[in-house]
Here is the input.
Amino acid sequence: MEKAFELAEVKDDKKVQYASYYLKDEGSYWRESSKALLEGKVITWEKFIEMFLEKYLPSYMQHRLEMRFLNLRQEDMTLAEYEVIFLELSRFAPEYVNTKAKKAKRFQEGLKTGIRSQVALLEIRNYVALVQKVMIIEGEKEVTKGEIEEKKRKFEESKSDQGSFKFRGKFGKNGGG
Here is the structure.
């Protein structure tokens, strides 16, 4: 919402009106009832956000989402899946990602062990640069895995071809002797 306000150059005293206009269904009913409770008092944008979060994202939920963020690990996720969840949950723990270095460090801590150890050597302190390097590493691992599987498949095929070869030498059925 803040980005939209910035783009539309909405002044602070109009933010509540704009945000209220876009509320739908239950959010609209909530806004109307909270307006009635405040009996005509002017609601600042900060107060509006506080009231909205209190209603739709209570502190216990914020804490749970913060803990989920702090415990987030890539595990079986692709890098893209991990990054999406990381960015989504990072909103609930802004103090851990409020600089490029902190964000990069936190992202790195949740990576798969093999990738994390490779990236740690690079000491990358910029989130975007870190994600790009990890993408390269993950891509190379996939290529390497594919090459290994291809070699393994060829080896298995050649092994099974050799097993079907029958010796027909001097003492075989068709051998002379």
Summary: Residues 115 and 137 are 7 Å apart (CA to CA). Residues 127-163 form the longest helix (37 residues). The chain has two domains: 2-56, 63-163. Residues 2-56 form one domain.
